[in-house]
Amino acid sequence: MTPAAPSQADLLAYVRRVAADRELIATLPLAPHDCTWVRLDGPQGSEAWLIGWPPGSGTGWHDHADSIGAFVSASGELREDSLAVRLPTDGWRTLELTDGVDRKRLLPAGRGRAFGQHHVHEVLNASPDRHAVSVHAYYPPLPRIRRYSRSGPVLRLEQVERPEDCQ
């Protein structure tokens, strides 16, 4: 019997538990200028990652397409910039965003969030001198990631990555 798909709440509970495991968090090697990561066994068939963020690093604007997800800062502080708007799923290259759609969250150690499908965001370690570590989980395992560029109110789809593109 196949286990039930995890909910956003299940994924958030999982990343919180892992982020609280100080011994596991300490095993992640941290590089001075590059992000580091280790894949974890997520709950109920989900994909999970432990990620180290050097000072000033970030993801750039992206979404996880059809996957739901959750992440928690385990050490240091991350900032999430997100859009409070549902984007069309396909068939566009450039959108002009309206005023009031930008959201910013500071996520110190122990804080995080869950999100639904097509959630557009970027995650940053804005610290000039401290690493951050976070735990992430996604379900279904990431079928694709869409990457965007942003100039003022203009959001542009730049690339669609699929797992087979990285093998």
| SSE sequence, one letter per element | HHEEEEEEEEEEEE
| Helix fraction bin | 10-25%
Strand order of the largest sheet: 1-2-10-4-8
From the N-terminal CA to the C-terminal CA, the straight-line distance is 30 Å
Please, what is the average pLDDT? 93
**What is the CATH class?**
Mainly Beta
Structural class: mainly beta
Strand content: 35-45%
**Biggest sheet descriptor:** 5 strands, antiparallel
Stretches with pLDDT under 50, minimum 5 residues: none
Radius of gyration: 16 Å
Tell me the CATH superfamily: Jelly Rolls
CATH topology: Jelly Rolls
Q: Count the strands?
A: 12
Principal-axes shape call: globular
From the coordinates shown, what is the CATH architecture? Sandwich
The number of helices is: 2
Task: Please provide a written account of the structure.
This protein starts with 7 loop residues before the first helix and ends in a 6-residue tail after the last strand. The strands form three sheets. It has a five-stranded antiparallel sheet with strand order 1-2-10-4-8, with helices on one face. A hairpin with a 2-residue loop joins β11 and β12 (154-161). It is mainly β. 29% of the residues are buried. The protein has helices at residues 8-19, 22-26, and strands spanning 36-41, 47-53, 62-63, 68-75, 77-83, 94-96, 102-108, 112-115, 121-124, 132-139, 145-151, 154-161. The chain is globular. It has one domain (8-87, 99-142): Jelly Rolls (Sandwich), CATH 2.60.120.10.
